[in-house]
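F.,

This is the one I mentioned.
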């Protein structure tokens, strides 16, 4: 009996290993098509070290499920090819599914729906007056998402999932917001609660990491493996991508750099000398008064200051120039340690030319010999959340092809 049990266990483990390997191979193939497509089967095989037969089998399933399409000859690129059979290229079927992108911070709270090419189908801004109660925020977000799904999604089986980008410290594995000081939240099981409300998998991530991943997968930082991202808002948050992996740190607090002391600024924190808080303290003349302003009101004041600078207001322009330079000067200290290939500025202050130019100048004054590329992200948090949903639910996690094949056959 023990021999039979051992043999049965061995067979079960081998079967499980084959299933796991098959799923991993499918994710690898999907990643190639999503991130580098359109691609031929031969190109996919070469990039993944799979046989062309394996790639053909996997892509056949993906085509049958409606996730992938073969491009007609008219849509093939004009890359010169050797004589012989023309390779058919594969691409993600934009109409093969839907994703939800949810973004919540003090500037905006939005729910958006997109196809698998991240072409936005619908958007609803919530404009919540009080963000401090997570129960209220979750209910309002879920209600908006449900209305959107009912209106635009004709087959729920093709709603692959959602991604929720939120300000604060986030544990994406357990799908928990550990803390969100600007929202006034403590620990909240956000992912679990949203999944319970919507009946779909909901991934969560903080804003800097959302932007870093989305831009490195699909945007201005595409292909970057060593990237320092600065989300410049009321406070300064960071994301560190090294060897293509996010660095999360103890208690998922890596990147919470707003409280560090800026060089040559006495006891001032980075938030107060280079972030929106510091900008508003100079606009209002007293940092103690700024601390009393509700976060939503402070966000509106910061956006107004940015607009005045763009419109030629000399005082606003000078303040943004000085704070942007402070940021560049401060982050130059990190460059020598982590040696990223690029630094990317994102967030509301990335829309302020004076701030961006001064940050670039401050960085160049101290790290000019390190050849660090300077990038500016124009991606919204909502768009980043949708890109994360596409990545997470197409090639980061296993996908239920059986349901999609049934939907395709219906």
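My design for it:
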């Amino acid at each position: 009996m023990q021999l039979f049990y051992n043999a049965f266990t061995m067979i079960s483990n081998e079967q499980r290993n084959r299933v796991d390997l098959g799923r991993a191979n499918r994710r690898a193939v999907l990643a190639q098509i999503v991130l580098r497509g359109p691609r031929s089967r031969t190109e996919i095989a070469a990039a993944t070290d799979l046989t062309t037969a394996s790639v053909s089998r996997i892509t056949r399933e993906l085509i049958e499920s409606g996730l992938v399409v073969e491009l007609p000859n008219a849509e093939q690129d004009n890359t010169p090819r050797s004589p012989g059979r023309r390779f058919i290229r594969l691409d993600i079927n934009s109409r093969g599914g839907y994703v939800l992108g949810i973004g919540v911070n003090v500037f905006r709270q939005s729910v958006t729906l997109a196809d698998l090419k991240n072409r936005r189908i619908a958007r609803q801004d919530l404009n919540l007056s009080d963000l401090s109660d997570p129960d209220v925020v979750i209910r309002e977000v879920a209600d908006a998402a449900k209305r959107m799904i009912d209106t635009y999604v004709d087959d729920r089986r093709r709603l692959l999932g959602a991604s929720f980008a939120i300000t604060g410290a986030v544990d994406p594995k357990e799908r928990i917001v550990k803390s969100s000081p600007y929202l006034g939240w403590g620990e909240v099981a956000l992912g679990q609660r949203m999944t319970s409300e919507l009946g779909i998998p909901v991934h969560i991530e903080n804003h800097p990491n959302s932007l870093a991943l989305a831009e490195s997968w699909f945007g201005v930082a595409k292909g970057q493996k060593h990237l320092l991202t600065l989300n410049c808002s009321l406070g300064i948050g960071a994301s560190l991508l090294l060897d293509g992996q996010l660095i999360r740190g103890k208690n998922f607090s890596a990147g919470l750099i707003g409280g560090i002391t800026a060089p040559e600024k006495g006891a001032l924190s980075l938030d107060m000398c280079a972030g929106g808080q510091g900008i508003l303290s100079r606009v209002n003349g007293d940092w103690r008064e700024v601390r009393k302003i509700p976060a939503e009101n402070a966000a509106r004041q910061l956006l107004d200051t940015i607009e005045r600078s763009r419109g030629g207001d000399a005082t606003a322009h000078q303040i943004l120039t000085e704070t942007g330079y402070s940021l560049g000067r401060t982050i130059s200290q990190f460059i020598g340690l982590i040696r990223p290939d690029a630094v990317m500025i994102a967030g509301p202050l990335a829309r302020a030319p004076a701030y961006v130019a001064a940050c670039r100048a401050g960085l160049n004054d101290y790290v000019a010999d390190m050849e660090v590329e300077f990038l500016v992200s124009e991606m919204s948090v909502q768009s980043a959340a949708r890109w994360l949903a596409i990545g997470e639910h197409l090639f980061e996690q296993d996908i239920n092809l059986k349901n999609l094949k049934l939907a395709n056959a219906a």
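The chain has a mean pLDDT of 89.

Talk soon.
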